[in-house]
Structures are given as structure tokens and as C-alpha cells.
Design a protein that fits this description.
- There is one protein chain.
- The chain is mostly helical.
- It has one domain: Four Helix Bundle (Hemerythrin (Met), subunit A).
- The protein contains nine helices and two strands, in the order αααααβααβαα.
- Strands 1-2 form a two-stranded antiparallel sheet.
- The longest helix has about 35 residues.
- The protein is globular.
Length: about 260
């Protein structure tokens, strides 16, 4: 028996022992939210579809934390989570983008929507390969849940500003291509799963967090959009500042030599 056969038998044996219900149930709830978002989009309920994408993002943030807190992390859960991300943050936003904003552009519209989906899938595949080799405080490329939430908040902002039905704007095409590029780029983004974020923080951090929560509740559509945009641009801005800092360090060394 080869090593490959032994590994396969070991995986089968692990599945026979069972799976952890709670974290995987939360992941399944995220898949449900993504699937219902697609249903809502096909029915023309774009605002509802956007809210369910955001709901899927909440479930995505919970399943991993619940698994770690309860000691129920598993390879099965990791694989299921990746599949959930493809549905909830890849296909669901892609369909929403096409039906709501990109359909009037014809072939360019559905190609742009497909590009978003495939780049999201590539982003997930790369993350799964690099998860044990990159620092936990930074993501390489825009995370697909963040990209999906940006799409959802764009829809919500549109309705908050009095829009109705579909929208046809070249800016949406540009946004889709930008999200696709950022997901597969090497631009680093701050990880919201950084363990240091959940350690003791200064008292003022709590005050700022409460004030932010109050403002979000007061105007969720507008504030969620602004937060999404801030995170979107944070990657390129921080990377540019890091590049300038490195250049300033290297330049004096070159001049001395």
C-alpha cells in the first residue's frame, strides 16, 4: 500500500468518526444565505439579495471563531468553508452584479461578472495553498468576502439614495474589473481575523468601537458602503507607503556605496 492510499484511508476513517455539527451548521447557514441571495436576485429583489450577502459574511466570520473557541476545527470544515465562499461571495454577488447593473452592457456585462467569479475562486485557491506560509496579520489580495460586501453595499447605497430597479453605469463595470484585479493581486490587506484584535486593547478603542457601531446603526447603508470603500483603498495606500519607506531606506545605502 502506497503512502497516498494510507492517507486516503486515514481521511475516510476520520469521516467515519463523524463531523463537528455546530461550526459546519453555521457554514451551511452561510451557504443558505448566499443561495437565497441568488433567488432574490432572480426575483428582482436586489436590496434583499444584498442584505443576504452581508448576512453570509457574518456567518463566515462566526464559523471559524466558533470552531477555534470550541476546539472543533477540522479539515472537513475548512473545505466546506471554501465551497461556501465560492457560492456566497463568488456566484451570488456575480449574479447580482450582472442582473442589477451589467446586463445592459451585453457580452461585456456577463464577461465582467464571470471575471469577478473566477478571480474570486482563484483568490480562494491561492489562499488555501498559502495559508500556512503567509503571516496571519495580512491577506495577499483583497479577500473575497470583502469584495462581495462591497458589491452588496453598492446596491444598498443605490436604494438608500432613492434608486429603484436596475442601474446602468460604466462605473460599475470599472468597479467589477477593479475588484477582480485586487483579489488576484499581491497587494496586502489587513486581516480582520488577526488574533491581536481580540486581545486587550486601550479603553479608547472600546469607545471608538461603540461610536462606530452607533453611527452604523443610524445609517447602515451609507456607513457600510464607506467602510467597504475605506478597506478597498487601504490595501493600495498602505502598500504604496510601505514601498516609499523601503525606497527611502535603500536610497541612502546606495548613495554611500
Amino acid at each position: 500500500m502506497t503512502d497516498k492510499d494510507c492517507l486516503r484511508n486515514e481521511k475516510r476513517e476520520n469521516l467515519r468518526k463523524g463531523v463537528y455539527v455546530l461550526p459546519n451548521l453555521i457554514t451551511a447557514a452561510g451557504i443558505f444565505a448566499g443561495f437565497y441571495s441568488i433567488i432574490a436576485t432572480t426575483d428582482g429583489n436586489y436590496e434583499t439579495a444584498a442584505w443576504f450577502i452581508l448576512l453570509a459574511a457574518i456567518f463566515d466570520g462566526l464559523d471559524g471563531k466558533v470552531a477555534r473557541l470550541t476546539g472543533t476545527s477540522s479539515k472537513f470544515g475548512v473545505e466546506l468553508d471554501s465551497l461556501a465562499d465560492v457560492v456566497s461571495f463568488g456566484v451570488a454577488p456575480g449574479v447580482l452584479l450582472y442582473v442589477w447593473a451589467l446586463r445592459p452592457f451585453g457580452k461585456l456585462g456577463w464577461l465582467a461578472a464571470f471575471l469577478y467569479v473566477i478571480c474570486g475562486a482563484l483568490r480562494l485557491a491561492r489562499f488555501n495553498v498559502q495559508v500556512s506560509t503567509v503571516e496571519s496579520k495580512r491577506f495577499i489580495g483583497l479577500p473575497i468576502p470583502a469584495a462581495a460586501c462591497i458589491v452588496a453595499t453598492c446596491v444598498l447605497l443605490f436604494y438608500e439614495l432613492g434608486g429603484a430597479g436596475t442601474i446602468k453605469m460604466v462605473s460599475m463595470v470599472i468597479l467589477v474589473f477593479s475588484l477582480a484585479f485586487l483579489m488576484v493581486s499581491n497587494i496586502k490587506y489587513v486581516s480582520l481575523k488577526d488574533p491581536d484584535l481580540f486581545k486587550r486593547q486601550p479603553f479608547m478603542a472600546l469607545v471608538v468601537a461603540i461610536l462606530t457601531l452607533v453611527v452604523i446603526v443610524a445609517k447602515p447603508q451609507i456607513m457600510l458602503f464607506l467602510i467597504g470603500m475605506a478597506y478597498l483603498f487601504s490595501g493600495p495606500v498602505v502598500n504604496f507607503l510601505d514601498w516609499r519607506k523601503k525606497r527611502q531606506v535603500v536610497k541612502p545605502v546606495v548613495e554611500k556605496t
